[in-house]
Amino acid sequence: MQPAKRLTEGALLSGLFIVMLFLALFVPFVMTIVLWFLPLPFIVYTARHGWRAGLLMMVVTVLLSFFIGGIIGFPNALLAGSGGVTAGALIRRKKEAFFVTAASSLAYIGVLILLYAATILIINIDPLAALQDVMRQSVEQAESMLGAMGQEGSQDLETFQNMIEQIGYLGPLLIVATGIIYAVISQMIAHVVMRRLGMKYLPFPAFRNWNFPRALLWYYLVTSVIFLIGVEEGTALYIVIWNLMPLLETIMALQGFTVMFYYAYVKGLPKALPIVLLVAGLILPIVLLLARILGIIDLGFQLKKRMESSN
């Protein structure tokens, strides 16, 4: 593509990002939707023209976002640009979708850590502590309302208070989970758009064929044993276990749901059946527990391969 056309395309995509950022910042009703589309201009432009062009577009867009959106626009542009350029560069090099997701997740996580640290050092505000204060105020208001009605504080409020105290230890988990989810959803959106634009990319494999590394099973077992034994609250090991446990449980559950999808595929069952089970797992703990058990069995004994052989 000629330099003039490439610059024009970059300017248009940068302008598109500014418009989406403006909507995300100042139109609350569409913020939760537009947020997932912010990395899209960077992914598309970098996938077409390479990481150097994408990085240049990112620098210009971040500066424009700072001048237009101020201190709020800057971190959003930096976050979307870093992951978008990373994903676009790897898509251009025809890397597998999981590899692209992993790399862009690391980019998002790295920027989130920098933003978190900058918030504490520059603005002198700890986002997690601020969130805890807001939640404590909500609990206090609920307790005062119950007291005004002549009722005592319920067990649910005490449980909620304990959960608030644990949030202070879950900062790493929240950052990692946010980076991974943002990478997965933004890349799925990019694949849809790139297919419409006729651009080449390696898509995600079917969900039934997803397989996490078997080493994660051993990490999960060791973490579970330490979690059951218990460690002293506030120690480094305590923080590590409390952040690893939910993440590994989620991975085991996802692996289990891939078994359900694979079984439905092999047996020719309706496609809606595993989807219903997946949705039910978000609501019913028993379904989530079953999926977790299936995931452990699959990673340990290669359950899906045995199903394929028997079929």
Number of domains: 2
CATH-defined architecture of the largest domain = Orthogonal Bundle
Number of helices: 13
- Predict the CATH topology of the largest domain: Arp2/3 complex 21 kDa subunit ARPC3
Number of strands: 0
First-last Cα distance: 51 Å
Mean pLDDT: 86
How helix-rich are the residues, as a percent range?
over 70%
Radius of gyration, in Å, reads 23 Å
Uncertain parts: none
* Tertiary shape: globular
Order of helices and strands: HHHHHHHHHHHHH
Secondary-structure content class: mainly alpha
* CATH level-1 class of the largest domain: Mainly Alpha
Strand content: under 5%
Structure, described:
It is a single chain. With 311 residues, the protein is an all-alpha fold. 81% of the residues lie in helices and 0% in strands. It has 2 domains: 1-129 and 169-204, Arp2/3 complex 21 kDa subunit ARPC3 (Orthogonal Bundle), CATH 1.10.1760.20; 208-311, no CATH class. The protein has helices at 3-26, 28-34, 40-49, 51-92, 97-121, 127-148, 155-167, 171-197, 215-229, 236-267, 272-281, 285-301, 303-310. The chain is globular and about 65 Å long. The N and C termini lie far apart (51 Å).
